[in-house]
Amino acid sequence: MTRVVDMIERKRDGGLLDADDIRNLIAAYTRDEVPDYQMSALLMAIYLKGMTPAELAPWTDAMLRSGDVLDLSHIPGIKVDKHSTGGVGDKISLPLAPLVAACGVKVPMVSGRGLGHTGGTLDKLESIPGFSTQQTTERFIELVKDIGLGLIGQTAQIAPADKRIYALRDVTGTVSSIPLISSSIMSKKLAEGIDALVLDVKVGSGAFMTTIEDARILAKTMVGIGEKMGKKVVALLTNMDEPLGQAIGNALEVRESIEVLQNKGPADIRALTLELAHEMLRLGGKDPALAEKALADGSGLKKFAEIIEAQGGDPKVCEDLDRLPKAQFTEPLCAEKSGYIQAVDTKEVGIGALVLGAGREKKEDAIDPGVGLMLKKRVGDKIEAGEPLMIIHHNKTGLDAAKKRLLAAYKIGAEKPVQKPLILDRIASEN
């Protein structure tokens, strides 16, 4: 294999990495033969210089094959998963996966932890008392077969190279790279043994892709990778210029997800859950209208309780939301002037929640499951000076720093803004 430092220098200077070198590098990193500091340097070079399709294909394939590729072909039906590129308040996977499984589509879902200012599905699930996202691949397959879904993190067997690179990106400022995002997502998803995939590509101030042009490139890149692997892939580009729903923070977002499955919850969370469910059901060969039925008759909620219990958690949280972790203190954050909420720096809102303990500054940091924010106002809403923008749920850690960031994140003015639609575009493979 070419020396790692030579690969770093080549990419730093805008050169191309050889496919065999890429495969050897990923294999060596998985075997602990390449140190984190060298991989971090290469990730920064990729972040700055990008990757061509000729580099991206072997990079994704090498991460995919760094562990086991699951075989779910013995399980009847089409296996469909969903992935979001990450946003603030984005808890959609939690109500979506059980809702779709309740409609008869198998949902093998391998998720990640919080990345940068965005929350992670695993961190949210683990705020449910007792819930274990660390399952063996054998148990995961059993869950998909018997219950219709499994909600796990990457095991040592599933794309282990991606798991390690994912953690490095979070703490080295290399998150928002189209090649690194697309290869991470697709290597993990294709290793699950799925037949089809729905992607929720976030666009806006709270997303890694802040412009619709970059989001389209990312979506097309991932759809293209899936197409080459013979998978059906649909991507929705969705608005992340303000947080999704009202809840930001792990247990608070689980609470809101359960409310959606109770056929309640914020309108935007409910609408996006149903849109993505319709796409997953179409790919799974089912009637999209089944999604509304599963909300109305409670079967989606019942399926969530079933998977919580099967993975060691307390299913009674679906009936009694007070069983979820809570912060010790709450405090309103009030507007300093009157007017309309014209814009929100959603990334700053996400960082505000992170500072409270809802996310990680360093990969070894522990998360406080009970802290977070409950938003009271959305873009376009009128607000009076002294009226709460949100309620902060905290345990005193980072409160002053969070308040400063959160107040600065809101732009209030005299004119009511034109609001963007929730769904901005749809990109699909030709399969």
SSE layout and pairing:
Layout: H1 4-12, H2 19-30, H3 36-49, H4 53-64, E1 80-84, H5 93-102, E2 107-111, H6 121-125, H7 137-146, E3 149-153, H8 160-171, H9 178-190, E4 196-203, H10 212-228, E5 232-239, E6 247-248, H11 250-261, H12 267-283, H13 290-296, H14 299-310, E7 329-334, E8 339-344, H15 346-358, E9 372-375, E10 382-383, E11 388-394, H16 399-408, E12 410-413, E13 423-428
Parallel strand pairs: 1-4, 2-3, 4-5
Antiparallel strand pairs: 5-13, 6-9, 7-11, 8-10, 8-12, 9-11
Helix pairs in contact: 1-3, 2-4, 4-9, 5-12, 5-14, 9-10, 15-16
List keywords for this structure.
431 residues; alpha/beta; Transferase, Pyrimidine Nucleoside Phosphorylase, Chain A, domain 3; Pyrimidine Nucleoside Phosphorylase, Chain A, domain 2; Aldehyde Oxidoreductase, domain 3; 3 domains; four-stranded mixed β-sheet; 16 helices; 13 strands; 43% helix
Note down, in words, how this protein is organized:
There is one protein chain. With 431 residues, the chain is α/β, with parallel strands linked by helices. It folds into 3 domains: 4-50, Transferase, Pyrimidine Nucleoside Phosphorylase, Chain A, domain 3, CATH 1.20.970; 80-321 and 423-428, Pyrimidine Nucleoside Phosphorylase, Chain A, domain 2, CATH 3.40.1030; 326-413, Pyrimidine nucleoside phosphorylase-like, C-terminal domain (Aldehyde Oxidoreductase, domain 3). 43% of the residues lie in helices and 16% in strands. It has helices spanning 4-12, 19-30, 36-49, 53-64, 93-102, 121-125, 137-146, 160-171, 178-190, 212-228, 250-261, 267-283, 290-296, 299-310, 346-358, 399-408, and strands spanning 80-84, 107-111, 149-153, 196-203, 232-239, 247-248, 329-334, 339-344, 372-375, 382-383, 388-394, 410-413, 423-428. The strands form 4 sheets. Strands 1-4-5-13 form a 4-stranded mixed β-sheet, sandwiched between helices. The chain has a 4-stranded antiparallel β-sheet with strand order 6-9-11-7, sandwiched between helices. It has a 3-stranded antiparallel β-sheet with strand order 10-8-12. Strand 4, helix 10 (212-228) and strand 5 form a beta-alpha-beta unit. The longest helix has 17 residues, at 212-228. The two termini are 37 Å apart.
